[in-house]
Write a structure and sequence with these properties.
With 146 residues, this protein is mainly α. It is built from five helices and no strands.
Length: 146
């Protein structure tokens, strides 16, 4: 049971810390890296992908440190990894279509997430963006009239 709880905790911490880092660090002092995500990119990669490598390395370190005893570090690393995979499918494949596999969602939870992310990208400037979370976004984006 603790494995499930620590995995959920790892996932949840990523959403909360991701929001904070996105709003105050990526749209702050590390804008020079993150701005590549707010601009058109011809190739499959952008400088902003360095953030994914950073978060992924945290997961790998936690898994490595906890694998011997399968303690909380291992399971939090698993939760962070599940977040990363979910992020890849939702953000990179569904929203930005970096790999064209899914179609644009028309209703429900995924459509709300999609709308919130579109609102975030309404500007390509450092300031003025909204909706910095990925899985938890303001309720207004789930309004079908929007």
């Amino acid at each position: 049971m603790s494995a499930i709880l620590f995995s959920i905790l790892g996932f949840g911490i990523m959403e909360i810390s991701g929001w904070f880092i996105h709003k105050f660090i990526m749209h702050g002092p590390l804008w020079s890296i993150h701005k590549t995500h707010h601009q058109h990119t011809d190739g499959p990669f952008e400088l902003n992908d360095l953030f994914s490598l950073f978060f992924g390395s945290i997961a790998v370190i936690l898994i490595f440190l906890g694998v011997g005893s399968l303690d909380y570090r291992f399971w939090m690393g698993i939760g962070i990894s599940v977040y990363g995979l979910s992020y890849f499918f939702l953000h990179d494949m569904l929203i930005h279509r970096r790999i064209k596999f899914f179609k644009k969602p028309k209703n429900g939870y995924l459509a709300g997430i999609f709308k919130a992310h579109q609102a975030h990208h309404a500007t390509n400037k450092r300031d003025g963006s909204v909706s910095f979370g990925l899985f938890v976004v303001p309720k207004k984006y789930f309004n079908s009239k929007r």
